[in-house]
Amino acid sequence: MADTLLEVEGLSVDIKTGNGTLHTVRNISFSVKRGETLCLVGESGCGKSMTSLAIMDLLPKGAKRSARQLVFAGEDLTSKKADQFNVLRGNRMAMIFQEPMTALNPAYTIGDQLMEGYRRHKSAGIAEARDRAVFLLNKVGIAAADERFGQYPHQLSGGLRQRVMIAMALMCGPELLIADEPTTALDVTIQAQILRLLAELREELGIAIILITHDLGVVARIADQVAVMYAGEIVEQGRATDIFSDPRHPYTRGLIDCIPLPGKTTPGRKLGVIPGVVPSLIGEITGCTFRDRCAHAEAQCREPPPPRQVPHHSWRCILEDA
Amino acid sequence: MTFFILKRLGLAILVSLAVSAIAFFLLRISGDIAIAIAGEGARDIDIAAARQLHGLDRPLIVQYWVWLLQIFNGDFGQSIFFKSDVLSLVWAKLPVTLLLGVLSLAFALVISIPLGILAAVFANSWIDRLALSVAVVGQALPNFFFALVLIVLFSITLRWLPVSGSATWAHYIMPVIALGYYVAPAFMRLVRAGMIDVLSADYIRTARAKGLPAHIVIFKHALRNAVMPVVALTAVQLGYLLGGSVVIETIFALDGLGFLAYQSITHKDFPVIQAVVMLLSVLYVLLTLLGDIANAWLNPRLRIS
Ligand SMILES: Nc1ncnc2c1ncn2[C@@H]1O[C@H](COP(=O)(O)OP(=O)(O)O)[C@@H](O)[C@H]1O
Ligand code: SF4
Ligand SMILES: [Mg+2]
């Protein structure tokens, strides 16, 4: 398809540890169209961060990526060497992380850190880079941008630092922005502001976003597409409207039942949780990964569950509809 | 920042005073100065006379006070052995020791920082292990032994370098290597540990996410943060170097403070020993102070607050 920006097919990430190899991402496939927002959801530890780091080629030492296909804007990422990847990274694809408090280098000013990628990728002079940085600091809603430009990270709050991170990611005008739980570490009012900012930026700049979160409330507000991950696999994916109105996989259904809804959720009552824990990612998992926690599990679920689909919507389960 | 410096300065003065007291009292405990002053084979009356002349019969605390006042007036007394003014004697030897200290430190940093970085970047590889073995050998060999090995190799076997003296720059080569190699391992370990720590920091991932090439990530983003504890250690190590210079200067007959300290100890030249100990200690305290200030200045969190 012409407007496909990112095509991921058969992506796996293995981490060698003392106790065996962790298969943190298991043969997943998805794609992102230009200007579209894909939300990657799932409980913590299910491989969301590893997926995004694999796309950015930022996996930690010891983690190995393999993929049948990894194509960004028509370019094959699997064959790129480190210096070739550096031409794309920070330039055409950018990323912001979960921990704004530690994501900025304490030894350099905000301005320095904003400008360095831009100056390198765009061969720009200081004056031009500075103008762009101050413009973006304003754009992400930082007051007194000129002053902030010369400050060090420790002089900024977590919310401001995350705004700086967003401005930094936007410096070179990337086509793809990956945001890995950008609001998890922030308090609730700031979370809402940052998400609104991301939504606005997408409208305004037409940038494609992969937003990683375990907060389905967020997903409902911002996503075009949703991919639900469980134990390293994508168990269900499709258009956001379909996923919310017609979830097919028992795990997705469980997640949606856990969203607090005004009017529906009794205040003070405990929110629903899916009982049980994620299976160990060491070694192969045969059959459905969710079966230890699934209310519908049958003997049949020991076999790999069949892929099922309706238009714009696919899942893996023995059931047509949970 | 000004408050920080003032606080550290006050502390440095207190420490110097404490050191002066320790230097003074320890020496007094170690032997009877009157006997040393009266000289070899002196009679009891001569000793008693010397004791009275130099005020050694007064209470220790009074003697200390008098000595301290004299020091503040720049009067370190007369050398018993060299028969000259202690201050000018010590002053004349200071440049040699400082030069030795600074060159050794430079030598230590020049080998330890690159080795530490390499060891961290290639942690747990053969490069790391090689660097580690260099460090272990450096820490295990006593510096006098290493100095002797150098002499046998470069002076006796190869005849490239002079064995002793301080006349030319060539005289400094072996002392600098012997002394510098001795402190290099501590730096190497610190750089390695600091770099390993910093390289796994979130902001390093941010730097890589920007598409910066490896050398900028390592030298701009990582080293700058890893080097802060090294700066603090540098001052402390320079102190060790000054101490180690006693052994090295003596072996190579390099005419500096360390050699002077050795000579005055063998001749029981108390005023000189006191002065050298005092000077080395105050230098050490000053260096630590400088290290603290440099460290604070490197760290924006301390500089701007
Ligand atoms: N550096 C690492 N070394 C070993 N295991 C890791 C490392 N980072 C993550 N993991 C493991 O990989 C799995 C997936 O992690 P991650 O992708 O961070 O999950 P998520 O982002 O969905 O919370 C987890 O089980 C986690 O414990
Ligand atoms: S395949 Fe079986 S265990 Fe897995 S989700 Fe479907 S019903 Fe549950
Ligand atoms: Mg994560």
Automatic annotation (TrEMBL), chain A:
<feature type="domain" description="ABC transporter">
    <location>
        <begin position="6"/>
        <end position="256"/>
    </location>
</feature>
<dbReference type="InterPro" id="IPR013563">
    <property type="entry name" value="Oligopep_ABC_C"/>
</dbReference>
<protein>
    <submittedName>
        <fullName>ABC transporter ATP-binding protein</fullName>
    </submittedName>
</protein>
<dbReference type="Pfam" id="PF08352">
    <property type="entry name" value="oligo_HPY"/>
</dbReference>
<dbReference type="InterPro" id="IPR003593">
    <property type="entry name" value="AAA+_ATPase"/>
</dbReference>
<dbReference type="GO" id="GO:0055085">
    <property type="term" value="P:transmembrane transport"/>
</dbReference>
<keyword id="KW-0067">ATP-binding</keyword>
<keyword id="KW-1003">Cell membrane</keyword>
<keyword id="KW-0813">Transport</keyword>
<dbReference type="GO" id="GO:0015833">
    <property type="term" value="P:peptide transport"/>
</dbReference>
<dbReference type="GO" id="GO:0005886">
    <property type="term" value="C:plasma membrane"/>
</dbReference>
<dbReference type="GO" id="GO:0016887">
    <property type="term" value="F:ATP hydrolysis activity"/>
</dbReference>
<dbReference type="InterPro" id="IPR003439">
    <property type="entry name" value="ABC_transporter-like_ATP-bd"/>
</dbReference>
<dbReference type="GO" id="GO:0005524">
    <property type="term" value="F:ATP binding"/>
</dbReference>
<dbReference type="InterPro" id="IPR050388">
    <property type="entry name" value="ABC_Ni/Peptide_Import"/>
</dbReference>
<keyword id="KW-0547">Nucleotide-binding</keyword>
<comment type="similarity">
    <text>Belongs to the ABC transporter superfamily.</text>
</comment>
<dbReference type="Pfam" id="PF00005">
    <property type="entry name" value="ABC_tran"/>
</dbReference>
<keyword id="KW-0472">Membrane</keyword>
<dbReference type="InterPro" id="IPR027417">
    <property type="entry name" value="P-loop_NTPase"/>
</dbReference>
TrEMBL record, chain B:
<dbReference type="GO" id="GO:0005886">
    <property type="term" value="C:plasma membrane"/>
</dbReference>
<dbReference type="GO" id="GO:0055085">
    <property type="term" value="P:transmembrane transport"/>
</dbReference>
<keyword id="KW-1003">Cell membrane</keyword>
<feature type="transmembrane region" description="Helical">
    <location>
        <begin position="130"/>
        <end position="157"/>
    </location>
</feature>
<dbReference type="InterPro" id="IPR035906">
    <property type="entry name" value="MetI-like_sf"/>
</dbReference>
<keyword id="KW-1133">Transmembrane helix</keyword>
<feature type="transmembrane region" description="Helical">
    <location>
        <begin position="169"/>
        <end position="188"/>
    </location>
</feature>
<feature type="transmembrane region" description="Helical">
    <location>
        <begin position="272"/>
        <end position="298"/>
    </location>
</feature>
<keyword id="KW-0813">Transport</keyword>
<dbReference type="InterPro" id="IPR000515">
    <property type="entry name" value="MetI-like"/>
</dbReference>
<feature type="transmembrane region" description="Helical">
    <location>
        <begin position="98"/>
        <end position="123"/>
    </location>
</feature>
<feature type="domain" description="ABC transmembrane type-1">
    <location>
        <begin position="94"/>
        <end position="291"/>
    </location>
</feature>
<keyword id="KW-0812">Transmembrane</keyword>
<protein>
    <submittedName>
        <fullName>ABC transporter permease</fullName>
    </submittedName>
</protein>
<feature type="transmembrane region" description="Helical">
    <location>
        <begin position="230"/>
        <end position="252"/>
    </location>
</feature>
<dbReference type="Pfam" id="PF19300">
    <property type="entry name" value="BPD_transp_1_N"/>
</dbReference>
<dbReference type="InterPro" id="IPR045621">
    <property type="entry name" value="BPD_transp_1_N"/>
</dbReference>
<comment type="similarity">
    <text>Belongs to the binding-protein-dependent transport system permease family.</text>
</comment>
<keyword id="KW-0472">Membrane</keyword>
<dbReference type="Pfam" id="PF00528">
    <property type="entry name" value="BPD_transp_1"/>
</dbReference>
